[in-house]
Amino acid sequence: ILEGDSLRKWKQLTLYDIVEYLDEKVVDRLSFNKQEGTVVCHPTCSTMKMEQTSQLESIAAHCVEKVIVPNHHGCCGFAGDRGLYYPELTSAASAREAGDVKTYKDVLGYYSTSKTCEIGISDATGAPYQSIVFLVERASRPQN
Prior knowledge:
It is a single chain. The chain is of the alpha/beta class. It is built from nine helices and four strands; from the N terminus they run ααβααβαααβαβα.
């Protein structure tokens, strides 16, 4: 149990999800070198529940010309660590999204917001998903 100064400091903390943090604290402070091409974004369950899918798309749109969120996006079924033990959960939960993703051509990258979801959706789709932070970093690097 926190008391005294520790409790006061705890109450002063502001916790952010990565989408909210990038959107509210980072994107406006950077200069972007928008790349030609398309990226695919997988909104996680928490991204959808917090109604941040459009923010995720907006962040990616600062970086590239076109952003795709698959029509059949949804829970990847990884469920924390369950996908490590029961990969068939992820395979079944992501089958329709995987079908969408496999139709996209000439994609520059695949992005999401949670390492476990990135593992699950990568396995389900065969596409190498990584954190949206990597896209933001690459697109905001100074040009030489």
